[in-house]
Amino acid sequence: MSIISAIIVLGGIGLLSAAILYVVSKRFYVKEDPRIALVEELLPGANCGSCGRSGCHDFACTCATAASLDNLVCPGAGEEAMKKIADIVGLAPNIAKPQVAVLKCYGTCENRPMTASYDGPASCAMLHTTGSGTTSCPFGCLGCGDCVKACRFGAMYMDPVTGLPVIDPEKCTGCGACSKVCPRHIIELRDKWPRGMRVWVACSNREKGAVARKECNAACIGCGKCMKACPHDAVSVTDNLAYIDFTKCKLCRKCVLACPTSAIHDAGFPISAADMAAIAERKRKEAEAKKAKESNVEPKD
Fold first, then answer.
1. N- to C-terminal Cα separation, the chain
2. Is 259 annotated as a binding residue?
3. Binding residue per annotation — 252?
4. Total domains present in the chain
5. Which domain holds residue 120?
6. Is 198 in a helix, a strand, or coil?
7. How far apart, in Å, are the Cα atoms of 151 and each of 171, 180, 199, 219?
């Protein structure tokens, strides 16, 4: 009998508690703008924070209550999604130019041999506190993959051969999460050109050329040949390190061909810079041969 009484009492308490919760939920219910849910459906849901908000829901709430979308853009959503969001909230769209991350380092296992061992946690942030890490270069990639772990879109992976992260331009949304977690700040966001074409200096070493070259075979030595070769004034050299301004770059790739250490990389082009140079050289020789034949003069080697 005591068991039945206990069950009845507990059941009564449960029903009373449920009734109280129901009344309280109805009494203090706050109606949410239905546009918030519509906006949130268009967002990637990664909560990467690249928009400057705490997450996708916070971004959706801000869009629904904002008077303008000028400072509100989600890199991961894309241009079409931002246009739809603008239609939902009845404001002019804020379309940001798509960006892609690039790694400003090519210190592969071959180019930059190990000079020390590390037996701590597999974290770039932790390894960075030791100084130059496992190599003599204090500016290059540490290779623990913190950037890969931070990417919410599966756009990065570690190459077991080079020991460097690889960025997939098709998957990269330009959210900047990888750039924020890199303790050496060697991941940069650059404007995404059609077909993913891009040219950048794959080095961050600011030491003098001779020192940088000893530390890595692919280091920028600050010689300035790329700057002289650029016809668009897009290349500058500061603190022994070249930099290509992507807002001025016309993708002619003359800097790529001029670099003596191959520190300037290009990607996304149907023809590589080396092949382009070979084609130009072949055409030059053909033109000289044709001219020599017409004038009955032996062509130069």
1. 112
2. no
3. no
4. 2
5. 99-219
6. strand
7. 10, 11, 22, 27
Distance CA 99, CA 154 (A): 16
Q: Retrieve residue 22's tokens.
A: 């129901």
Quick: pLDDT tens for 183-224. Answer: 999 999 998 887 778 999 999 999 999 999 999 999 999 999
Beta bridge partners of 170: none
Indicate the SS3 state at residue 134.
Answer: coil
**Tokens linked to 207:** 């030491």
172 is in an annotated binding site: yes
Distance in angstroms (rounded) separating the CA atoms of residues 214 and 112: 9
Residue 226, annotated ligand binder?
A: no
Please check if 137 is assigned to a binding site. yes
What's the token pair of residue 95?
């379309």
Q: How far apart are CA 18 and CA 168, in angstroms?
A: 51
Question: Does the annotation place 124 within a ligand binding site?
Answer: no
Q: List, for residues 262-299, the tens digit of each pLDDT value.
A: 999 998 888 877 777 777 777 777 778 877 777 765 55
Question: Does 144 show up as a binding residue in the annotation?
Answer: yes
Domain harbouring 104, CATH code? 3.30.70.20
Does 105 carry a binding-site annotation?
A: no
CATH assignment at residue 70: 1.10.15.40
Q: Would you say residue 264 lies in a domain?
A: no
Tell me: is residue 203 an annotated ligand-binding position.
no
Domain membership of residue 77 (yes or no) is: yes
